[in-house]
Amino acid sequence: MQIIIKTDGLPISRQIANQIRHRILTGNLKVSHEVPAVPELAKTLRVNPNTVARAYHQLEREGMLEKREDSEIRIVSRDSEQHILQGSQRLEHHLDSAIQCAIELGFSIDELTDLLRRRNRETRGTATEQGRKIP
């Protein structure tokens, strides 16, 4: 499993959870697939095991992971429609704020779109340059 840790201020546990969630929702990780044990992933990412545990606990609360008696942690759900809807709602809230701010600053929709595209390219480039890309 590949996890990229960015130095953008987002807590590492949330970055881990977000990336695993995304892989589950897009079908890159399948139901019943075993995810790495907490100590194993922590060692690979060079982070505190509590950080990985927090990410896994979040995904357990969301019903996406399940810890078995034999200590295996498996993917148990892929309720993509609900998660996509929730993600879309969160994103729309942020976009509404950005649009309102752009209007107040006198930006046109084309200028806002250009800025969004530029920031997207820069963010993706920064993640590869500054992040830890782990196979």
What is the fold's blueprint, element by element?
Blueprint: E1 3-5, H1 12-25, E2 34-35, H2 38-45, H3 49-61, E3 65-67, E4 73-75, H4 80-105, H5 109-130, E5 132-134
Antiparallel strand pairs: 1-5, 2-4, 3-4
Helix pairs in contact: 1-3, 2-3
Protein model, in words:
- This protein is mostly helical.
- It has two domains: 78 residues, Orthogonal Bundle (Arc Repressor Mutant, subunit A), CATH 1.10.10.10; 52 residues.
- Helix 1 packs across helix 3 and helix 2 crosses helix 3.
- The radius of gyration is 17 Å and the shape is elongated.
- 13% of the residues are buried.
- The C terminus is likely disordered.
Can you tag this structure with a few keywords?
Arc Repressor Mutant, subunit A; 5 helices; mainly alpha; disordered C terminus; elongated; 10% strand; three-stranded antiparallel sheet; 61% helix; 135 residues; two-stranded antiparallel sheet; 2 domains
What is the strand arrangement across the widest sheet?
A: 2-4-3
What is the CATH-assigned architecture of the largest domain?
A: Orthogonal Bundle
Biggest sheet layout: 3 strands, antiparallel
Radius of gyration: 17 Å
- CA(first)-CA(last) distance: 6 Å
Shape, principal axes of CA atoms: elongated
**CATH topology title of the largest domain:** Arc Repressor Mutant, subunit A
